[in-house]
Design a protein that fits this description.
Layout lengths: L1 E5 L11 H15 L3 E7 L12 E11 L2 E11 L6 E6 L1 H4 L6 E2 L2 E2 L3 H19 L5 E5 L5 H9 L10 E6 L7 E3 L3 H4 L12 E2 L2 E3 H8 L2 E4 L2 H6 L10 H6 L4 E3 L32 H13 L10 E8 L5 H14 L3 E8 L1 H13 L4 E5 L3 H10 L2 E4 L9 H7 L3 E5 L2 H6 L5 H5 L6 E3 L4 H17 L1 H13 L5 H20 L1
Parallel strand pairs: 1-2, 1-8, 2-5, 8-9, 9-13, 13-14, 15-16, 15-18, 16-17, 18-19, 19-20
Antiparallel strand pairs: 3-4, 4-5, 6-7, 10-12, 11-12
Bound molecules: adenosine-5'-diphosphate.
The site of adenosine-5'-diphosphate has 17 residues, from helix 1, strand 15, strand 16 and helix 12.
C-alpha cells in the first residue's frame, strides 16, 4: 500500500507528546511490512535544517485561506535510518514561531488558519508531486480537515477519487474548537456547518470534522475506544463516536525499540536486560539507580524505594491525586521521588514549594529533557501514573520495558497494558504492576503502599514483576499489523461509498 501519514508533530523533528512518538515510529514499522510510507508535517522554526538535511523541493504552495492566498514552500527530509520521505510544509508567518500550538500556556489565535494551511498544503503537495497514495492517515484535530476536503471538494478529482482516509484520536479532549467565523477560513461550503458534520454547539470543531468524514477511525487503546463512547470520557463527542462505532477500532501504541531499549540506550550510564537472577536482582538497573540518585542530588542509597514521574503537568495526569499523596509521603515515609515535567504554572508552584521543604527526598526538574526521562525510567524502582483518563500512555510501557514497576489508574491504555498484582496474576506470573480503579487520593496512596510493601518484603517476587514486564513485546510489530488491517477496511469502505 501507498500510505501518507500527516501529523502536526513527528519524532525526531518536533514533539510535545505521545502523538510525535507514534508518528515517528509507526511509519518505520509499516515500511518493514513492505508498505510505501511518506510523512507530512509543518516546518516549525525549531527544526534544524542542517541537522535533518532539510532541502527545498522547489515546489511552491499557494493555498486559499479565507479570502487570501497564502504562499509556502514544500521541503523534504527523511526519517533517520529509513527510506521514508518526510515532507515539511513551510510558511514563515504560520510556522516560524517558537511554539507548536502556542506560547506561555496560550494557544495561538490563528491556529485554525495555521492548520488549515497545513491540511490544504498536504493535498496541494500531492497535486504538485502527482502522487496518489491509497490512504491518508491523519491524526488529531490539526489534520482533521483533510478527510473533509477529500470528500467534499475532491471526490471527483482523478488523483483523490480513490483515496481513503483514517483518523486516529490520540486525545479526545483536544478538539480544535473555533468560533463560527473561522468556517470561512477552511474554504468549505457553509452548508457543512451543521450539528451532524462540522458544528459543535455553534463552534467549528475540526476533530469532529475528521471523525465524520474519514472512512475509518482509530484510537490508541481498546479500552479508550470503549470509554469515549460514553458521556464520562466522550468530551461531548460520544454521540458521533457511538454513531460511527462500526468504524471505530482501538490499537495500542508500541514503543520505538531503537529509542527505548535498556540494552542499547545511549543515555544510560550502563545498559541492562531482562536476564538476571531473581534472588540477587538486576545489577545493571541497580547501577542506573545509583547514578540517577547522584545526578538528582539524592542520597545514593540502594535500599530506599525511588519513585519516578515524567509527564505533562496537566490535570489529565492525575496531579490532583499526586500532590496530596506526595506531601503525605514526604512528611512521613522514607522514600525518594524524582519528578520531571512541565505545564500548568499552579502545579509548578506547588511542586517547587514541596521541593524547597524536602530537598533530600524530592528531586524536581521543571522542564523537558528526553535524556533525563530515559535515565528516570531506567533508574527508578516505581513509576507513578494515576491518570484521570489515558488514551494509551507511553511512559508506563517505557517503565515496564526498563524494569520499573508502574503504579497506574485502571483506565484507557493503562488498563490495557499494566497487569495488576493479584493472587492469580502472581501465581501465573503475568503481573507487571499495581493498578487501582477509584480516582481518589486514598486509592493512589493504597496502591503505592502495596508496591512499597512488596519492594521491602518480597524482593524475589518484586524482581519477577520486573522480569515479566521487561520480557513483554512492546514493539510496534503487532500494532502495525493491526493498522494494516484497518487501512484495508478503510479502503474497502471508501470503495463502497
Ligand atoms: P501524553 O502524550 O499524554 O503527554 P504519553 O505518556 O503518551 O503522554 O507520552 C508522553 C511522552 O512525552 C513520553 O515520551 C514522555 O517521556 C515524554 N515527556 C513528557 N513530559 C516530558 C518531559 N518533561 N521531559 C521529557 N519527556 C517528557
Amino acid at each position: 500500500m501507498k500510505i501518507l501519514l500527516a501529523s502536526s508533530e513527528v519524532v525526531p523533528f518536533a514533539k510535545t507528546g505521545g502523538l510525535a512518538d507514534v508518528a515517528g515510529a509507526l511509519p518505520r514499522a509499516l515500511e518493514k511490512l513492505g508498505h510505501e510510507v511518506t510523512v507530512f508535517m509543518p516546518a516549525y522554526e525549531s527544526i534544524s535544517k542542517s541537522e535533518f538535511n532539510v532541502e527545498p523541493t522547489g515546489i511552491e504552495l499557494r493555498i486559499p485561506i479565507g479570502h487570501e492566498i497564502q504562499s509556502g514552500q514544500l521541503l523534504r527530509s527523511q526519517l533517520p535510518d529509513s527510506n521514508i520521505s518526510v515532507y515539511l510544509i513551510e510558511h514563515a508567518h504560520y510556522f516560524g514561531r517558537s511554539g507548536l500550538y502556542g506560547e506561555n500556556g496560550n494557544d495561538y489565535l490563528d491556529n485554525c488558519e495555521r492548520f488549515t494551511f497545513f491540511s490544504r498544503g498536504v493535498l496541494e503537495s500531492l497535486r504538485s508531486l502527482g502522487s496518489s497514495p491509497d490512504l491518508i492517515h491523519v491524526n488529531d484535530w490539526q489534520t482533521g480537515l483533510i478527510p473533509a476536503l477529500i470528500k467534499c471538494e475532491l471526490s471527483e478529482h482523478p488523483l483523490f477519487r480513490e483515496m481513503a482516509s483514517v483518523i486516529t484520536v490520540h486525545n479526545l479532549a483536544y478538539q480544535g474548537l473555533f468560533d463560527y467565523e473561522k468556517m470561512a477560513v477552511t474554504g468549505l461550503d457553509p452548508k457543512y456547518f451543521n450539528w451532524q458534520q462540522m458544528e459543535f454547539y455553534q463552534k467549528l470543531n475540526l476533530l469532529k470534522t475528521g471523525l465524520v468524514f474519514s472512512d475509518a477511525i482509530s484510537t490508541v487503546s481498546p479500552t479508550y475506544a470503549k470509554e469515549i463512547q460514553g458521556a464520562e470520557q466522550g468530551c461531548g463527542l460520544e454521540g458521533v463516536l457511538k454513531n460511527r462505532a462500526h468504524r471505530l477500532t482501538g490499537i495500542l501504541n508500541g514503543i520505538d525499540g531503537d529509542e527505548w531499549n535498556p540494552n542499547t540506550d545511549q543515555f544510560l550510564p550502563v545498559n541492562f536486560n531482562s536476564q538476571f537472577d531473581l534472588r540477587s536482582g538486576n545489577a545493571g538497573k541497580a547501577k542506573c539507580k545509583h547514578e540517577l540518585q547522584i545526578e538528582s542530588k539524592l542520597e545514593p542509597n540502594p535500599n530506599v524505594p525511588l519513585i519516578g514521574i515524567v509527564g505533562r503537568l496537566a490535570s489529565q495526569k492525575g496531579w490532583s491525586l499526586i500532590l496530596p499523596v506526595l506531601r503525605q509521603w514526604l512528611e512521613s515515609v522514607e522514600a525518594q521521588w524524582v519528578i520531571l515535567g512541565t505545564g500548568d504554572p499552579d502545579y509548578h508552584h506547588v511542586l517547587s514549594t514541596l521541593h524547597r521543604s524536602y530537598p533530600t527526598k524530592l528531586a524536581l526538574t521543571l522542564g523537558f529533557s528526553n535524556e533525563y526521562a530515559h535515565r528516570i525510567e531506567a533508574g527508578s524502582d516505581m513509576f507513578v501514573m494515576p491518570s484521570q483518563y489515558e488514551p494509551c500512555g507511553l511512559n508506563q510501557m517505557y517503565s515496564m520495558a526498563y524494569g520499573t514497576i508502574p503504579i497506574v489508574r485502571h483506565t484507557g491504555g493503562l488498563a490495557d497494558t499494566v497487569i495488576n498484582v493479584s493472587p492469580e496474576t502472581l501465581e501465573n506470573k503475568t503481573a507487571t504492576g499495581f493498578s487501582f480503579e477509584d480516582f481518589s487520593v486514598g486509592a493512589l496512596d493504597n496502591a503505592i503502599t502495596r508496591a512499597v510493601r512488596m519492594y521491602y518484603e518480597n524482593r524475589p517476587t518484586w524482581n519477577q514483576l520486573i522480569q515479566t514486564g521487561m520480557n513483554r513485546d512492546w514493539s510496534w510489530n503487532a500494532s502495525a499489523k493491526r493498522y494494516e488491517e484497518l487501512y484495508r477496511k478503510a479502503i474497502l469502505h471508501h470503495s463502497l461509498g
